[in-house]
Amino acid sequence: MILDLEQLSYDERITGDEVVLFRDVAGEENRIRCHVELDVRRQGDTFYIHAELTGEFTTPCHKCLESTPYRVSPSFDLVVQTANPRAEPQPDSGDDDFVRLPAGQNRLELDPYIYENLVVDMPMTITCGEDCRGLCSGCGVNLNRGKCRCTGASDPRWNELRKLKDSLSE
Question: Three-state SS for 36?
Answer without folding.
Answer: strand
